Amino acid sequence: MTLDQLPARRRATITGIDWAALAPEEAKRLRALGIDVGAHVAIAHRGVFGGRDPIALLVGRMTLAVRRAHALAIQVQEA
C-alpha cells in the first residue's frame, strides 16, 4: 500500500520509494529527513481540507509534514 492509504497511528515500514515521481530537490529533502527504505513511520494526522494535505508523518522522534503527492510515491507495509 502507499503511505497515503496507511490508517492514522498505525506503524509501518517503508518498503519502496518511486524517486522518479518526485522532483530531485524534493527527493533530496526527504532523504535528508530520514525518509528512505527501511525507515519506520506512522501517520499522526491528516489535513482536513480538500485533498487532506498535508500529512503529519512520524519518523522516529520527528514529526514531518509531507504532501499527499509525496505519500503516493512511498510504499509501506504495516508492522
From TrEMBL:
This is Ferrous iron transport protein A. The keyword S-adenosyl-L-methionine does not apply. Keywords: Iron. InterPro entries: Fe-transptr_FeoA-like, FeoA_core_dom, Transcriptional_repressor_C. The keyword Cytoplasm does not apply. It comes from Croceibacterium salegens. It comes from the Bacteria. It holds the Pfam family FeoA. GO terms for molecular function: transition metal ion binding. Residues 1-78 form the Ferrous iron transporter FeoA-like domain.
